[in-house]
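Bench log, entry 3. Co-assembly request; chain sequences pasted below exactly as received.
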Amino acid sequence: MIRVGEALIGKMHEHGARDYPNECCGALLGKDEGANRTVLGLVPLVNQRDDSPQNRFSITPEDVLLAEKEARAKGWDLIGWYHSHPDSPARPSEFDREHAWPWYSYIIFQVEKGEAREMRSWRLDDDRAKYEEENIEFISSVPR
Amino acid sequence: MGVKVMIPTPLRQYAEKRESIDLEAKTVAEALSSLTSQFGELKRHLYSDDGRLRSFVNVYVNDEDIRYLQKEKTALQQGDTISIVPSIAGGTE
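Structure output for the full assembly:
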């Protein structure tokens, strides 16, 4: 289960709407407590896919290191990634699965005609064969 | 050569939760081969079925991306640090 506060959901939605019709992407910072995780902050990033940003996103290793550094500075972990699916459902594509890392939470949300809609979270299985959905608990404020 | 391999967070669960592994290797290929023979589950996450490093797996020797060196044939010196750094990608169908 992954807990996400309303304010951070709002920020992700704004990012998705702002970058529509392109995919937006960013890092999820927070605490990993085994079965449960809490998102405590975001690092919005620039989608580096210039060739097809409407249906692909890419985050460079430099940006991954930047997000890790930001998490460390706050005493948190880099627990995953978010990205939008413009005019497409909030479930991972085959392309998502092929490029996924285990352990990370992948939050995906649909942006339909510029408006953010359904949000779901996914984690890759150990054998890379499929994603498992991770329940999102939507909370009004983030615990500190 | 004694070198250190830094394991990224998502893969530590397959390497006894360790942040780094010390091993002996003369090249990056040797280091990764030694790493994956020690921790077999790492292999499927680092290499695709055709035996190539996955496109989103980036390997640095100290601060240099091996793509700009001699790739996996890059020679190692005593005390080098090899970092495995993820890049992240995805998208709709």
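Chain B touches chain A through 21 residues (CB under 8 Å). Residues 28-38 of chain B form the longest helix (11 residues).
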